Amino acid sequence: MAYKDEQLHEEKVFKDPVHRYVHVRDRVIWDLIATPEFQRLRRIKQLGTTYLTFHGAEHSRFNHSLGVYEIVRRIIFNFKDRKHWNEQDRLLCLCAALLHDLGHGPFSHSFEKVFKLDHEHYTQQIIVGDTKVNHVLEKVYPGFANEVADVIAKTHSNKLVVSLISSQIDADRMDYLQRDSYFTGVSYGHFDMERILRVMRPTEDQVVIKSTGMHAVEDYIMSRYQMYWQVYFHPVTRSSEVILTKIFHRVKHLYDKGYIFKLEPTHFISFFKNEENLQDYLKLDEAIVYYYFQMWQEETDEVLQDLCERFINRRLFKYVEFDPNKMMNVWLELIQLFKNIRIDPDYYLVVDSSSDLPYDFYRPGEEGERLPIHLLMPNQELRELSRESDVVEAISGKKRTDHKLYFPLDMLKENKDKETVEKIMAILQIQGDV
Amino acid sequence: MAYKDEQLHEEKVFKDPVHRYVHVRDRVIWDLIATPEFQRLRRIKQLGTTYLTFHGAEHSRFNHSLGVYEIVRRIIFNFKDRKHWNEQDRLLCLCAALLHDLGHGPFSHSFEKVFKLDHEHYTQQIIVGDTKVNHVLEKVYPGFANEVADVIAKTHSNKLVVSLISSQIDADRMDYLQRDSYFTGVSYGHFDMERILRVMRPTEDQVVIKSTGMHAVEDYIMSRYQMYWQVYFHPVTRSSEVILTKIFHRVKHLYDKGYIFKLEPTHFISFFKNEENLQDYLKLDEAIVYYYFQMWQEETDEVLQDLCERFINRRLFKYVEFDPNKMMNVWLELIQLFKNIRIDPDYYLVVDSSSDLPYDFYRPGEEGERLPIHLLMPNQELRELSRESDVVEAISGKKRTDHKLYFPLDMLKENKDKETVEKIMAILQIQGDV
Amino acid sequence: MAYKDEQLHEEKVFKDPVHRYVHVRDRVIWDLIATPEFQRLRRIKQLGTTYLTFHGAEHSRFNHSLGVYEIVRRIIFNFKDRKHWNEQDRLLCLCAALLHDLGHGPFSHSFEKVFKLDHEHYTQQIIVGDTKVNHVLEKVYPGFANEVADVIAKTHSNKLVVSLISSQIDADRMDYLQRDSYFTGVSYGHFDMERILRVMRPTEDQVVIKSTGMHAVEDYIMSRYQMYWQVYFHPVTRSSEVILTKIFHRVKHLYDKGYIFKLEPTHFISFFKNEENLQDYLKLDEAIVYYYFQMWQEETDEVLQDLCERFINRRLFKYVEFDPNKMMNVWLELIQLFKNIRIDPDYYLVVDSSSDLPYDFYRPGEEGERLPIHLLMPNQELRELSRESDVVEAISGKKRTDHKLYFPLDMLKENKDKETVEKIMAILQIQGDV
Amino acid sequence: MAYKDEQLHEEKVFKDPVHRYVHVRDRVIWDLIATPEFQRLRRIKQLGTTYLTFHGAEHSRFNHSLGVYEIVRRIIFNFKDRKHWNEQDRLLCLCAALLHDLGHGPFSHSFEKVFKLDHEHYTQQIIVGDTKVNHVLEKVYPGFANEVADVIAKTHSNKLVVSLISSQIDADRMDYLQRDSYFTGVSYGHFDMERILRVMRPTEDQVVIKSTGMHAVEDYIMSRYQMYWQVYFHPVTRSSEVILTKIFHRVKHLYDKGYIFKLEPTHFISFFKNEENLQDYLKLDEAIVYYYFQMWQEETDEVLQDLCERFINRRLFKYVEFDPNKMMNVWLELIQLFKNIRIDPDYYLVVDSSSDLPYDFYRPGEEGERLPIHLLMPNQELRELSRESDVVEAISGKKRTDHKLYFPLDMLKENKDKETVEKIMAILQIQGDV
């Protein structure tokens, strides 16, 4: 039997708290899960620093990747014998689903921002490069790895397959909403996935939703909206991301100016120089990052030491609302006041903005790559969701942005220049409870 | 207001997936949670390597510690105005609950076994030593830290308070059964805690259970039994523990014989020498351990390198049932055969035994410190649980032990001495599917 | 001890699938639950005929009434020691909560429509009339029954107490959304009630919501929206309500014109004559109604017999969308065609409209009695919810109405005048799948 | 296409709170559900009077029957392509599952006891008699109805098919444990059905369980044990059953001795005379029974009137433990004392015993028709469950019986012969809290 069609002697299952069981029958999938590159995802949290806000959110990207695979498996199972669906694409979909997040590094959000990296680029590299994952994929047939990479990159010619993995209502989103809800324990994030799976229909170039399932989709979209603002953009999490970002900035800055580290940032140097390769990248995980942060608490550089200690011991920055239209002058004044009392505003007075994503969702068509959700009406016509749904229509056009100003309240309180601190506090308190 | 009575301006809550919310009103509790020693528990998994079997089990001891605190808080809340209950003991109970696992290190089970340590000893040390936790506690009143330590050590004179934290049906067990069940996703581990809390009654020297709640307790005991054999003693988890233990053994062995490491085991040296102090211990967490394991994959020592690579990439040992009564000869023969093909049986042929705990539970009285569960009958008499419950009585006397023999199947398959390997396999396969 | 303050020897609990436990400590509450008038609610389904669409929805108003009581009990528990809250109002709130639906009769919706009755009127009557419920209440203090009645009628001078029982986010709504969701099994209807209860704050004249809980309230409002359209206004349920209404109409019509019944409609005669009294009303329950419907399957009047048989055996009417603006002519034509083939359009061609409620909700102020939901901002200011919430604002102004035309498809198919039937079908099918 | 193979144009689903969705594809199943005989099950509660103890338990046998059907559907789905499984038996299994409880009448337990009936007999009659159900079944092929009846009667030659419907771990038990747990809200009754379904294997003459699933089966058996004693044999429910039984006894007694009823017991007369036929039986449902009970509250016979009023308004009997070995004399004395104060002990002093079922379960082999549960070991051998499971073995041999003595405490308290009543109370109170 060709490797491609090889089935496990007996179906394997993973116990999964979200989907109850993850089922594996294909040898390829089993072998991919066993690769070091995939196992590495166990050492990277799905929600980065969110566990500092919601202590339950300690789950890894390994978890989520299995979940996305399982959802796609169930969708495809329902597609059997449906028009437009080609059973030959099954393995392509399953592999793309399993591997779609493979390139994530530790604390991707902050890390990528500082070092101008892109985890999607690395997902591609791991799949097509000289890796165990690539070797397993290429055993299916030569060129298969490239196909999988293309699906994930949304450049594959089979639009139906692409839409299963990346669209406004894809397996990725359906898994993370439910999974992140489960692990954080929030009451948002629930919707009737079983029903959505049952009303999904393959068409020539996308998955559409039978109109009878519209309300389940509405519920999914509201879940997504709530999860963004209640969990993903939680201001406390953003505080920890601010600190994380500043640590990376500081280390790079120190390295660039020739600072002598007690513990050299060996794992990061190629990134500082923009010379990193795939192997450098794959060596990174959260344990590595934590190790350095732990050790750097003993560096002589006070900023680095302080930021690391804050991150490790969760002594986060406080925040106030920040309105960029009204407060630019205030900000400039604060920067000067911070300088006056020798607190470096580059590291200790930070504006962070969150915006867009959930609303973007409801305005399909604006960004070229985002497919709107289409309903399949009883008369076989397709209609874009927001045309049919009052609720979705209502929140479609609304862009929402939230700006906050972060700063170390404790540090201010301990500063000896009480007078200046009082000035700062007066300015900040106008914005609300600190 | 005395620090002891100081309440937070507004109640703080943690969203908890198991208990929905964890409520904090006392300034002391809030300050304890913020200490570095307590935050360190975020970097230590509640179930060690179990996540390699149940991928959801990535939750930390931080999680669990908050949960135990919350359960005790709810028990005490119900105790208000009950005879025998002294509201003055409230803070003592809450602190002991929160801190009872404070001394756990990374992968305690294996680590303690190899280095002859005891996390309970460290819990005591952290509470009474020169730590932030100690400073917070001593602000309640001088000597309070010692009282908390005594409660956790079960040496405190107030037996009622001790029994809340450590007994056959304490807050610790009630939290971990539910929490581990939640995160692994297994269907065991459920029982009606709300009802148990409502039927708990303080007496002079212990918490007892109103007899109308007996069935909820039965359910709890069955949950415990199932969790032990289905989750805690899962043979795949034990495989990873075997490897972990052998890594620690190997490193110590190499260090002792003067091996030159590429990465010196700096964090471990004091442990090798039995000279470790509290600061050495507190520096350990799972990130540190993972960092070394990652790096040691590149050591020249093949055993160390192989074991680390196995652990990191989850290439675990396989196992067969092992009956020590019948198989000692078989084992000795296997040891010789392994030596013949140059696979060191000290590291690659390991018997692991699990036993006792759940059954011990139902035979109270044998070990001095274990209190049986007492039912409070309608006539106010106390009766030991197994006298009243058929189910508990039935499983009370049954000690159960499970032995397994672990070995690297892949390594055998790749060995060139096919003939010897076949002999080994023949011996092993008699014991069942490998 | 005054009856008013009398506590049960030991707290009683009811196991409740929605709130886990319902707790009763007050003798008054316990005695009210035991009255025949309250027990009667066990024989009236919470959702009328909805069980014909969602088979799980067989729960009674007894269920729901306990649930509302329990929620109010929890709200009040949180209010203890808060400004504006007077502990003396506790019993008033609890009794009003428990009894607020006491006047519901069997299939209220249809029954009241046909006989021009109002269950709220009967709730008042049962509380102030010569009933067991009244006797229990009056033991609290003379005039207490009237106070309870006033709270339910929203005429009581204590606006805070009234708002607990009847407002846009009262205990009634919070219970039924969750309960109906639980029993139907739909995935809508979930929200974080525990959080809402914790952010509720008493003010002088209403309960308001701390602004930090706004998102939980948004979720509640979306739940309500989805429940209305997915469950309460489900077109199949409306089909059974149409039949029910027509049965009552027919019986009255037959009685009025002197038809000789095999089984006299004894229980209904006073209602036909508008002479019913409280005792007549209290004798009604669903068992009585079902008994008559069962028996009337054997009446000689074909319409009555057919409608009863349809209801009992769930042979419901089919429906098509109906647009009153465009379809009045169509309807008139259909009426004529029905007459031509001797199917009485008064009973067999029915327009049913559902509308308003959920949207009304978000437009507070229009109807005098509806209080908007107010948020308590950090600066202690009150702000109306839709000013702060994008989502709520978005759906606030949108009135939605749904009209459907119901008819017996089977009867048409069996009619001998094939030609006319074909015409009818052609007209109907234009409106969509029948 | 033959009716037998006819599929619905589109799969139909029922929203089910326990199994999420019940799926129907076969025209036969759809048509069976629509028959009056099957719809009648909506008017008969699954747990009889249990709703008087657990208010949530208002679900009907209709509910449960759909659930059993759905479980069998899922089992069979897993059987596809397995050895020993014949896809031709699919419809036979599904119909037997759906219809297995068709013969249940209102309050079967009490009703059958008094009138010496057997619902299983009626299930057979409805399937093979002149009913709509029979007509649908016979359209599959002539004789099919008889085959379905044989499967339910366990007399069908295909033992594998029989074991799916009736065995120690059949779809019936799996549904009711979960369903009754869901609706009562108790925390017992949970087990991992999904896993059990996956480890079920067809053999020539029964369904067996792969040994890897043993612990899920243990959990199921413990669930069953807890549900029996916590829910099904709850002493309060038994109190209502006692009253129910006595009502039926009284009515028959009155009828036999020529009492003149205000409301003739028309529906019951053929049962009194042992002349009932299938049509008489099918006319019964709980609404009918309630109607009579309601009306009989106004009869002149005091016993009948009182018992009906008790049942309707839930004024139940109280109880004390009763040990038949020690208390026969006590009982005889009580009977005399009751007579002395003119309370008829035939109706007001009742011993009720519950026993056996759950334990029976664990002693397979004793009753000819009960198949033990067999595990399929890795070596393909079959082993009886209690040989492998400590827990099951432990509770296997233990028969448990519970006797209680029921009586109307209120009636005693109101009796004027205080002295005798005091004697009675003294005797009863020795047995425990009344």
UniProtKB/TrEMBL annotation, chains A, B, C, D:
Signal peptide: none annotated. SMART domains: HDc (SM00471). It comes from the Bacteria. GO terms for biological process: dGTP catabolic process. InterPro entries: dGTPase-like, HD/PDEase_dom, HD_assoc_2, HD_domain. PANTHER family: DEOXYNUCLEOSIDE TRIPHOSPHATE TRIPHOSPHOHYDROLASE, DEOXYNUCLEOSIDE TRIPHOSPHATE TRIPHOSPHOHYDROLASE SAMHD1. This is HD domain-containing protein. The lineage of its organism: Bacteria, Bacillati, Bacillota, Bacilli, Bacillales.
